[in-house]
Known about the structure:
The protein has 426 residues and is an alpha+beta fold. It has helices spanning 20-30, 36-48, 55-69, 95-104, 124-135, 155-171, 207-213, and strands at 7-14, 79-81, 86-91, 111-117, 140-146, 180-183, 226-235, 239-245, 250-252, 256-260, 268-277, 280-282, 284-286, 290-296, 308-311, 317-328, 335-336, 342-345, 348-361, 367-369, 373-374, 379-386, 391-392, 403-408, 411-423. It is globular.
Amino acid sequence: xxxxxxxxxxxxxxxxxxxxxxxxxxxxxxxxxxxxxxxxxxxxxxxxxxxxxxxxxxxxxxxxxxxxxxxxxxxxxxxxxxxxxxxxxxxxxxxxxxxxxxxxxxxxxxxxxxxxxxxxxxxxxxxxxxxxxxxxxxxxxxxxxxxxxxxxxxxxxxxxxxxxxxxxxxxxxxxxxxxxxxxxxxxxxxxxxxxxxxxxxxxxxxxxxxxxxxxxxxxxxxxxxxxxxxxxxxxxxxxxxxxxxxxxxxxxxxxxxxxxxxxxxxxxxxxxxxxxxxxxxxxxxxxxxxxxxxxxxxxxxxxxxxxxxxxxxxxxxxxxxxxxxxxxxxxxxxxxxxxxxxxxxxxxxxxxxxxxxxxxxxxxxxxxxxxxxxxxxxxxxxxxxxxxxxxxxxxxxxxxxxxxxxxxxxxxxxxxxxxxxxxxxx
Length: 426
């Protein structure tokens, strides 16, 4: 199958109710990716649910059930074709879903729109999402100042939000000077696909134009093969089919691989027999591709979600312990030595214990060595010990396999990246 236009994955994130789904629905409709009769149906549906004006939001919600039903995500459901690209739009609805998706890497975005409503401005989640995008390696973001119709399209309202958001993204180590800010109204359609006549003061791109302005995603094909498993299926006539997204490297038929840690904890070796993408057989696949594969010598009981398919010649490490740089986002109290929350790394979930707090920098910029505890806003260097087998790499070795989020009681408490690693002796 020939790859036509280059594909880019773009996520819309932001505080709940700041108009992400409505903006995407509007984009799909105005760009012709959603037929008028489909919108008409959604309009009636929205009215029946007493949600007048929610038809655009329903566009994405319709896909949600589509996504939950099918095994392979048929990306055509949320595809927008631009002059230069084929864009897969990832709506990150609701806070919890977003975090889960972001972390399992299913929706690893190449770029993202951080959506902020003009009237409400910066919210706690705005901050959290900025950090998560950064930690998960999304280098390119655009800030979408949405719902401009609710502030009468006033430039000073836009400037105020722009200033507040700049401070937040700067903390998350984005350079506001390099970030595009868009003034829009998803509900009214201003600067989504069509240029707005309501804001003559705004000179920037529309959301649709911005999709082509994001830098070309780098394909880390030169790094060794890493494919974290999302699921493992048993398919009649084929056998065991592990499914996942190739994070780095290239996979070829006949390639020798090792799946780590595997049920055994020491890895299971095999050879790639088939590669399938969107129901088509492929000879090879590269980073960014979502594939289902069959590996000679690897059965259903050998591997599970969270394992990583690696090139046998240069496998990843299983961590005995590791040092990480973390940012504490929202912990109800404080983090001290001995704390053992769940770490979400690529598709794995493994509890890890804080065994040493090496140093921290507070939100005020004050540094401290060997602190007794960490609290919200602190950025710290810590030593951690996985309770179980965890495949992880340092940011220097493979940035795509080094990021993680730390969750506890259903919330993201911190996010971070691995900087040093002590491998487990296998």
